Amino acid sequence: MMIRTNIFSHIDSEIQLLLVFYKLKQNPVGSLLASDFNISTGGIPELFKFWIKRMYRKFKIIKIWPSKENIQNHMPLSIKQHFPDLVAIADCIEFSTHVP
What we know:
Elements: H1 13-26, H2 30-37, H3 44-59, H4 68-74, H5 77-82
Helix pairs in contact: 1-3
């Protein structure tokens, strides 16, 4: 995987991807990313968009959601009666953890 963007050709693609994963996981401010990866703050959004689009093109074939029919077939009857069009429930609870 040695594909490089024009602006960041001095940074290996693996490091670029690491920056994107770090941003997705920790969401640090741009100045911290720029400092940690020794790049300009202004180019981070462009690099981020480049890799997110690239990952989408590569991973869009992976089906992460079951089909609506499959959901309907396995849904408990009590939920199906009250929410006949339900296809997903998003649980957005966040727990803080301390990592050494």
